[in-house]
Each structure stands twice: as structure tokens, then as C-alpha cells.
Design brief:
- The structure is a single chain.
- The protein has about 290 residues and is an alpha/beta fold.
- It contains 7 helices and 17 strands.
- The strands form 4 sheets. Strands 1, 2, 3, 4, 5, 6 and 17 form a 7-stranded mixed sheet that branches.
- A hairpin with a 2-residue loop joins strand 15 and strand 16.
- The protein is globular, with a radius of gyration of 20 Å.
Length: about 290
């Protein structure tokens, strides 16, 4: 059991971890994949670095700082987050399960919309980004999940006891390791329908009849987890109060996923505030 679990190891997540750990709380940081900060060739507008610093150096330096302070920082893909009967948060990764008393989402905004004709047109008209949120509407129907990683398989698992048939479509990418679902690896040319999704058309001219398409590309981002937990969103950004709290008790968010200025300085400030707010939440919970 951790006091605080943080999803994301960028400036916001690590800043939150540092402040929570210095308040003598047990802290876990989970991250997966390449950070946007790592891709930055040079950061030259951040305080204290005369001549600038590379994004990868700043990113890795933050992670090392957190580890030195005693924060557990693990590279694991988070697949599912839920609240248990004790009002704690259970976080399932591809390899482990963790429990925390407070949760901070600092993943950045990773929503991936595929460049496939018809996707934008049919969003909310048969295309969804959240199986738990919208699976109910496809009871005993045929659905497909677009993706080829563990996140896609997790979404398929959420649908298998609801839908009559679940396909996994990889859009030309390698098939995931599974024998539970029928996997189609053909390249997709178009999503077709009338008032809602009806078919997936492939480059070879074949078509697949479906009632709904769930997009689960790459790894889950903050907005994906927010939808599953019932956290209020403003578009693809998580709504937060001044203390970085969300509408769900014990859940805080910070960094790019909250929208606004997409800069390291903002992420660090919001991370610090989120870490302190999570500590205060735990103190109030203990009373």
C-alpha cells in the first residue's frame, strides 16, 4: 500500500513525487513510453540552466532525483485504475497491481486519433475511446478494438462480457499475442456508416460489419483514465481546481493533461501543488 500513486514521470509527476515524499509519504511513480520532454532537443527558457539543457537530460535528471530521495519509480504500462471498497485506488499494470490512498494523474495528453477516413466523422456515433464508459451501449452487438498493444487487449477484456463478438484491428501493425479474440491485421482504408458506424473497409477491398469501434492506440493517457473514473473533462483536458484536485475525492491531476500553457515551469508548479494537496487529503482521511 502506497500513500500516493503517480501516473507519469515528467516534470509534473516527478515534482508531485518530490513534495509528497518530503512530507514523509510513501510514493510510487509509474510511467511507460517516451515522454514529450525527452523529444525536446534543447530547453532554453527554464530557470537555472545557463545555455539550456536537453529535454532528455532534464527528464532523466528528475527521475534520478526522485529515486535518490526514496521514491519508487517503475517503468510499467498502466492498464486499469479503479476505486475499491476502502476508497483507495487500485492500479493494474501489465505486470503488477498496486494500491494507493491518493492518485495523481500526470501523464500528459496522449489521446491518439488515427489518421483514418471517417474516424473524426463518427466519434460519439459508434466510435469511442473508453470501453468501460460506452460498452453498455453495445450489449450483444459486434464491436472492434483498434490497437495492437496491452492497452487494446485490456479494452477488449472490458467488452468481452458485454458484446456478442469482439475483434481486434491492428491497421497493418503486428498482431498482439492473444488467442481470445479474432485479430485482423489488414490496413484500414475507411470507417463507413450512415448516422453511425456500420463497417470497416480495408485496403484489400474487404469490409467488416460492426456496430461500434473502440480506439485504444499506444498506451492509455490521462483522459482515458479520467473517463473510466468519472473525472470531469474539458475536451481532452482534465478539469482541476486551484489545488489540482478533480471532482473525484483523492484524485489530483497536473501538467499538460490539465491544458493551458504547455511548459515545464507550469508542470513543475502544478506537480508541487498536486503533491501537497494529496498529502493534505491523506491527513484529512486519517482524522
Amino acid at each position: 500500500m502506497y500513500d500516493v500513486i503517480i501516473i507519469g514521470a515528467g516534470p509534473a509527476g516527478i515534482s508531485a513525487a518530490l513534495y509528497a515524499k518530503r512530507a514523509n509519504k510513501s510514493v510510487l511513480v509509474l510511467y511507460h513510453g517516451e515522454s514529450q520532454l525527452e523529444k525536446a532537443h534543447m530547453i532554453d527558457n527554464y530557470y537555472g540552466f545557463d545555455g539550456g539543457i536537453s529535454g532528455s537530460d532534464l527528464y532523466n535528471g528528475g527521475i534520478n532525483q526522485a529515486k535518490t530521495l526514496g521514491v519508487d519509480v517503475f517503468s510499467e504500462e498502466v492498464l486499469h485504475i479503479s476505486m475499491n471498497r476502502d476508497m483507495n485506488y487500485e492500479v493494474k499494470t501489465a505486470d503488477n497491481e498496486y494500491e494507493g490512498r491518493a492518485l495523481i494523474l500526470a501523464t500528459g495528453n496522449k489521446k491518439l486519433r488515427p489518421n483514418i477516413k471517417g474516424v473524426a466523422e463518427f466519434e460519439a456515433k459508434g466510435i469511442s475511446y473508453c470501453a468501460i464508459c460506452d460498452g453498455f451501449f453495445y450489449r450483444n452487438k459486434t464491436v472492434a478494438v483498434l490497437g495492437n498493444g496491452d492497452y487494446a487487449l485490456s479494452e477488449a477484456e472490458d467488452l468481452e462480457n458485454i458484446a456478442q463478438k469482439v475483434y481486434i484491428l491492428t491497421d497493418g501493425k503486428p498482431a498482439p499475442q492473444t488467442d481470445k479474440y479474432e485479430v485482423i491485421t489488414k490496413k484500414i482504408s475507411e470507417i463507413k456508416g450512415d448516422m453511425k458506424v456500420r463497417k470497416v473497409a480495408f485496403d484489400d477491398g474487404s469490409e467488416l460489419d460492426i456496430d461500434g469501434l473502440f480506439i485504444a492506440l499506444g498506451v492509455a493517457g490521462g483522459a482515458d483514465f479520467a473517463k473510466k473514473l468519472g473525472i470531469a473533462l474539458d475536451g481532452d483536458s482534465i478539469k482541476v481546481k486551484e489545488d489540482m484536485s478533480t471532482n473525484i475525492p483523492g484524485v489530483f491531476s497536473c501538467g499538460n493533461i490539465t491544458g493551458g500553457l504547455l511548459q515545464v515551469c507550469k508542470a513543475v508548479y502544478e506537480g508541487a501543488q498536486a503533491g501537497l494537496s494529496a498529502v493534505n487529503f491523506i491527513k484529512q482521511k486519517e482524522k
